[in-house]
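User: Sequence in, structure out. Go.
Assistant: Echoing your sequence, followed by the structure tokens.
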Amino acid sequence: MALRVAHVGTGFVGSQALRGVIEHPDLELVGLVVSAPEKVGKDAARFAGTPHTGVAATDDLAAALAARPDAVSYFATTHGRLKVALQDFCTILAGGSSLVTTSVGALIHPGSTRPDVLARLEGACAEGGSTCFSTGIDPGFFSDYLPVVLSGCARRIDAIRIYEMAVYESGAQSDSVAFEQMGFGAPIDAVPPIVHPDGLRAGWGGVLTMIAEQLGLAYDEIVVGHEMLPAPESFAYQGRTIEQGTIAGMRFHVAGVVDGTEKVSLSHVTRTRADLAPDWPRPLRNDAYRIVIEGDPRLDCEFEFASAGGTHLDGGFGITAMRAVNAIPAVVAAEPGVKSVFDLPVIIGRLHR
């Protein structure tokens, strides 16, 4: 019998997750929650690019939960509404529905979550007999599970290096991501949320800690840093202008340090145009993740992604979405509580028939 799923969010990642739920042979869409008034009442197919589903969008979470879903796939943004989202999580979990999400990276490693937040969520899970699981692409699969799996190929590990290298082309991100979170077009000395030290530690410190736990390592400290890229000239970007000298890209670095040496590190390099910052790390071809296991033997793996009929960024959105959607059966079957990827069996997809 298919698991009943209510879905929240129809943005760049949410729409791909919605399609994933609709097309998954083990899942049945029973509810859709949106935030924009113009989306209310429309069939879910309008946002997923699938045949008619018979499930109409609502802006009322309670109405979707009235269908008593086994799980909720939650992809609404938490930017500027984190407290609202956490209350949604508690409502969902306390009502008996398990939850998968990519909206809160700080939950990927429950042990790094703020104690009061974790206590609320654990209490809701206990009340509803439900399970909460947060994942994604990075933070997520490429920065928690995969590096640990690849470490099993080494006789000696000296360090683990993880890289994300991406071009956020004009029109490929929401304005919220491009201008509010990334800070494109802002003064070069601005510190947008994506690189704020507290945000880096909350969003990525947990995945580095999770790797350390799996490898039996304890850090002395986690260090963070960033550099913003000034636009060499003014250019049009997503309906606005990125003025010369304002932010046109960024790179950040988060690392777990032992005895003064970075043992596990994670770096992001993001450009608004592929030609910018030629001296910064870049992939062999398209956007990619790179994982390097320094040691003996040395392992250097670069992973590209794409989407049928879409862009390389669409491929990244799809991986982010499907990592959570494909986890739903395992999450529903798990014991109640807030779980990490290492608390679950291997998350698998389904061969196309």
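User: And one key feature?
Assistant: The chain has ten helices and 15 strands.
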